[in-house]
Design goal:
The chain is α/β, with parallel strands linked by helices and 310 residues long. It is built from 13 helices and 13 strands. The strands form three sheets. Strands 5-2-1-6-7-8 form a six-stranded parallel β-sheet. It has a four-stranded mixed β-sheet with strand order 4-3-11-10.
Length: 310
């Protein structure tokens, strides 16, 4: 019997959490093989000790079928979960293009609203679904993932929740303890997430401050609100139908976060590394311009991020 082969590219906070859940549930399964695409010290620790995942519900150790950076060893995926940083997407996927066949379902669990579009442009033969994820989880040390948020939700699909392949993947995820859904309005849900992550990621970096510091300052909170409204205008111009109360819902979700919460983009900025400013901030400014209008708050924040000595 042919095993279902799931490859996870990007074993960081998101890929490590969900890949860890899958690897733990399907360890030694006669029907499933979970492969981590990883390299360096992180890969070495996982091979030797497994991936240690600390969640808000407890901890577990996941031991995937294989940990490799070699595309040939990894083989062809039935399901390919892409959880890399947006700035690494094209370069990373080119290395593993041979792992993706026409029958492969690619699920991008990434920040940014255009990930699926970018993957389709790079590998047009693959079946790439739209997706978004809500989780606060970090790679804290090689081989160690820590979840700190109160929410862990995955949404993915092709707009047809009755599609048999999508339903089978959904069952695999749910059996692994992953709270996943495949709604018919996946693009709407992805845009709701983008309103959330784009605005708060941009502002936590702009002010070099966590969520609580932004929400407790009236001027900063007003700036956040105006950014979410600008994003709502971009979505409307792209003919994405969002709920009439979407701005309020996003603000409520942000208020529910622990005050010390920050964005992964802010964490990357603090480490002095690359950030996802192109996918989360610049994208909004460029897209609005292409659609014929301005987003002045986003423009101000983008200028501050690319010229930090403002």
């Amino acid at each position: 019997m042919k095993k279902t082969r799931i490859l996870i590219l990007g074993i960081g906070g998101v890929g490590g959490y969900y890949g860890g859940k899958l690897a733990a549930r399907y360890a030694n399964s006669p029907e499933m093989e979970i492969v981590f695409l990883a390299r360096g010290a992180h890969a070495d620790v996982i091979r030797q000790n497994g991936l240690q995942v600390f969640t808000t519900q407890g901890e577990f150790i996941a031991r995937p079928h294989l940990v490799t950076a070699d595309a040939q060893m990894a083989g062809v995926a039935d399901i390919f979960i892409c959880a890399v940083k947006s700035y690494d997407l094209e370069e990373s996927l080119k290395q593993y293009a041979s792992c993706i066949a026409p029958h492969t379902v690619v699920i991008p669990l990434m920040n940014g609203i255009d990930s699926a579009e970018r993957i389709r442009a790079l590998i047009p033969a693959a079946e790439v679904v739209d997706a978004c994820v809500y989780i606060v989880s970090r790679l804290t040390n090689p081989g160690i993932i820590r979840e700190t948020g109160k929410i862990s939700l995955v949404f993915f699909g092709n707009g047809n929740p009755h599609n048999e392949r999508i339903k089978s993947i959904l069952r695999l995820f749910n059996k692994a303890g992953i709270e996943a859904q495949s709604p018919p309005n996946i693009l709407q849900i992805a845009w709701e997430k983008f309103l959330f992550i784009s605005s708060i990621a941009s502002l936590t970096c702009y002010f070099n401050a966590p969520v609580g510091d932004i929400l407790s300052d009236p001027d900063r909170k007003d700036m956040l609100l105006r950014m979410i409204m600008e994003l709502e205008s971009v979505a409307a111009a792209k003919r994405v139908q969002l709920p009439p109360d979407v701005v309020e819902k996003v603000m409520e979700r942000l208020a529910s976060l622990p005050p010390e919460t920050t964005s992964s983009m802010h964490t990357d900025l603090q480490k002095g590394g690359k950030t996802e400013v192109d996918a989360l901030t610049r994208y909004v400014v460029i897209t609005a311009r292409e659609l014929g209008f301005a987003v002045p708050v986003f423009e101000k924040v983008l200028n501050g991020l690319i010229q930090p000595n403002r």
